[in-house]
Each structure stands twice: as structure tokens, then as C-alpha cells.
Design goal:
Elements (H helix, E strand, L loop, with lengths): L28 H4 L1 H12 L4 H6 L5 H34 L2
């Protein structure tokens, strides 16, 4: 193996200045909306979205706890329903 023909990999970390024209803070207005976060929890992420709920400043602590419990129960019920359908299907296929 010829080491002279291989180019070394160079990596550098670049820190952009906040005053730079390329610096961009993503818009989070959508995620600051309470109903948008609740919709994401129920329609997309289930209990995996609870960190999103806790990072949202629009909810107070009582609301966060309430919605975390409700979303967890909802997700467990969905998973249980999926398991029940799979077990029923398996029994139908196997003729048990």
C-alpha cells in the first residue's frame, strides 16, 4: 500500500459567529403552539414525544404531567391493540 498516494482526512470544526450572515435560528413558533405539540404527541410520536412536551414553555408543570400521563396511557393502549391484532391474526393463520 502506497501511503504517498493517500490523502489524509482533515477535519476542522467551524464556529460561526452569531453576527454572521449565514447564522440562522430555526423558527419554532409552530412548536410553541400547545395544540400543535398535543397533535404531534397523539398523531406521530406517542410517548417518545414527551421531551418535546417538557421543552415547550407554553405548558405549566401540571399540564405537562397531565399530558405526559394521558399520552403514555394512549400509547400503551395502541401498542396493546396492535399486539392483540397480531395475536388474533397469528391464531387465524395457524388454525388454533
Amino acid at each position: 500500500m502506497d501511503h504517498d498516494s493517500e490523502a489524509p482526512i482533515e477535519a476542522r470544526l467551524v464556529k460561526q459567529s452569531p453576527n454572521s450572515a449565514d447564522y440562522h435560528i430555526p423558527e419554532t413558533k409552530f412548536l410553541d403552539n400547545k395544540w400543535a405539540v398535543i397533535a404531534i404527541l397523539f398523531a406521530v410520536t406517542g410517548f417518545l414525544g414527551i421531551p418535546l412536551l417538557w421543552m415547550n414553555q407554553s405548558f405549566n408543570s401540571a399540564e405537562r404531567i397531565f399530558w405526559a400521563v394521558v399520552v403514555t396511557i394512549y400509547t400503551v393502549l395502541l401498542i396493546g391493540g396492535a399486539v392483540a391484532v397480531c395475536m388474533w391474526s397469528y391464531r387465524q393463520i395457524m388454525g388454533v
